[in-house]
Amino acid sequence: MAEPAQGALKTSHNGRRRWRPQWTARMALIPAMTITIVCFYGFIIWTFVISLTRSRLLPVYKFTGFDQYVRLFANERWWTAMQNIAIHGFLFIGGCIVFGYLLAILIDRGIKAEGMFRTVFMLPLSMSFIVTGVIWQWVMNPGLGLQDAVRELGWTTFEFNWIVRQDRAIYTLAIAGIWQQVGLCMALFLAGLRNVDPNIWKASRVDGIPIWRVYLHVITPMMRTVFFTVFILMSAIVMKAYDLVVALTGGGPGFSSDLPAKFVVDHILNRQELGLGAAGAFVLLCTVIAVISPYIHFELRKARDGGGH
């Protein structure tokens, strides 16, 4: 009779041991979950509620339906900002992925002074977007930047005045953004390349396959999860882009380089249009979800199907 009692005691004791770590971990997550629910989802709901009111300088809970959304969609500046974010997003994300991957491949091939090159490419990442914007504003200033320097060397017809041209100003944001973030993309891609099985390269050399074909047809498909990570990170930067616009172009000339985040902040803080700004913020969130969700679903389903095989 003593042995079963001892066994039950051990089982109960082990059960308590298993119970304590599980609930300790769950209890530790409660503060983080509470902050996430209140500060993220709570403010999303609050923003939507405010967008249904006549709020201007301060919140006023007098609901007017979707009047603010009607005003928003009739605002020409809003559509200019939405068009600009599509252009900026395509150029910025595409440029970061292409140049970051190419730089990672070059470093992965074992170039000399690899540490120095990695430091040089990662250095802009240590700067804020405000500093990056100010630097590139100097570089692109026609009177004292790159254009003036080249003309001083004798090429008097050289022009690089995109920052003051309405049809080119949006491209300057992509140039400055790529310059700052390409180092991060390079580091992520390089980490992925360094995890590739060395036997793949041995087999390709035995078969006489060109290096570029190995990268294109073998390595790149294996890096799908890294591409996915880079895409999500760069997309987040595009959607919340504000400080780079303010420091580099100010949204100008006119509103030619305006982006939705600047539109929202300007209307909330400068124009005392809290309801209209909240409507713009909620539409931007819905746009992000609509654009990114299919890609996320495709990648997660592909990873799940691949894991099943």
Automatic annotation (TrEMBL):
Residues 82-297 form the ABC transmembrane type-1 domain. InterPro entries: ABC_transporter_permease, MetI-like, MetI-like_sf. GO terms for cellular component: plasma membrane. The chain crosses the membrane at residues 27-49, 85-107, 119-139, 169-193, 214-238, 274-296. It holds the Pfam family BPD_transp_1. It is a multi-pass membrane protein. GO terms for biological process: transmembrane transport. It comes from the Bacteria. Its main location: membrane. It is found in: Cell membrane. The keyword Hydrolase does not apply. Keywords: Cell membrane, Membrane, Transmembrane, Transmembrane helix, Transport. Belongs to the binding-protein-dependent transport system permease family. This is Sugar ABC transporter.
